[in-house]
Amino acid sequence: MNERALLPVPVGGFPEVVPDLTQGAVRLRAMTETDLPFVVEQSNDPATVRWTTVPQPYGLEQARAFLDLHRRGWSELGGTKHWAIELLPHDGEPGLPFAGIIDLRPGAKGGAWETGFVLHPGARGRGAMSGALRMAAGWAFDHGAPSLYWWAARGNFASWRVAHACGFTHHGSLPGRVPHRALGSSDAWVASLLPEHPMTPRQPWSEPPVIEGDGLRLRPIRDDDSAMAEPHDHPAHFVPARAVPTPQTFDDWLLRRREGMSLGRGINWCIADAATDEALGEVLLFVHDAHLVVGGTAELGYAIRPTARGRGLARQAARLAADHALLPVAEGGRGLRRLLAETAADNEASNRVLQEAGFTVWGREEAADAPDGGVGASIHWERLT
């Protein structure tokens, strides 16, 4: 294939050269002067400022410069292709004349294309961006894109949720890959979409439901739950050091937990007091290099902060989480077939927790690799439906 062989040669002036695309309530169109106040609002929104490098301060002068960039991109064969996003009235919901911006950046010499997008705050929660991305991706593939890549600063879950909904495959994080306003550069998530892939999620996004019982509430972990992070006092061979947060590691630990859930690799709950909502620890279901599936297997883990131990919290939380995991989907559970757990043989407290939560021993290793790099005896547990 010749370089950009299928890209249409620009014919005519602006805005006629910009393809006008509509699917459902979402329309992609050329940007106009009347959009500029909305572009200013969008560019000064705190989420936009946090996750992008739009100039600050941002006013009409910067918006007009962006409109000029938009025009030039469509006049050049390999230029960046921007669209304004509009929401049309649909199913009783009013339309929005401007809902955001999406772009395509054609690759040189037949290489991969890239995409980026920014949503106006007034359009959130209406599915505008996922609809826009599907249309833009379809246009890219129709015009020779061999693949479409998405990048975002690590932690930008709103952007990843859009790419995830549209079938992009997450490839992990790259260090220092994207510019960052405060730090200079930031680690980046990267994901891709191929022409033959359906534009639907490739794996589930796990959302922890709220579960109450025995005086506890299992709920999503929040940014303000750092009280669960206390200095470690457990033997190093009991649990991997990074699995239990400290005051210094809580933010990164929580980011890793949320990353895993966004990839369907587990469910993480805060163990909270049902009366006060105080964060007491964590209970989780997880799989290695896969995702939770109905009829499948997962592992159970739990940790109680040191100052909250001795109250039977781990046993209660483990039973609540295990009951939910093995409950059929039709009854509100995860529909798993089997739960596993592994403990150090001398971790008597954890062994009691599993026994009281309905687990039985299915195996023992005398020289297992321990989390601290040593070797020791370990016990393998299971609970079946």
TrEMBL record:
<dbReference type="InterPro" id="IPR051531">
    <property type="entry name" value="N-acetyltransferase"/>
</dbReference>
<keyword id="KW-0808">Transferase</keyword>
<dbReference type="InterPro" id="IPR016181">
    <property type="entry name" value="Acyl_CoA_acyltransferase"/>
</dbReference>
<feature type="domain" description="N-acetyltransferase">
    <location>
        <begin position="26"/>
        <end position="196"/>
    </location>
</feature>
<dbReference type="Pfam" id="PF13302">
    <property type="entry name" value="Acetyltransf_3"/>
</dbReference>
<dbReference type="GO" id="GO:0016747">
    <property type="term" value="F:acyltransferase activity, transferring groups other than amino-acyl groups"/>
</dbReference>
<protein>
    <submittedName>
        <fullName>N-acetyltransferase</fullName>
    </submittedName>
</protein>
<feature type="domain" description="N-acetyltransferase">
    <location>
        <begin position="216"/>
        <end position="382"/>
    </location>
</feature>
<dbReference type="InterPro" id="IPR000182">
    <property type="entry name" value="GNAT_dom"/>
</dbReference>
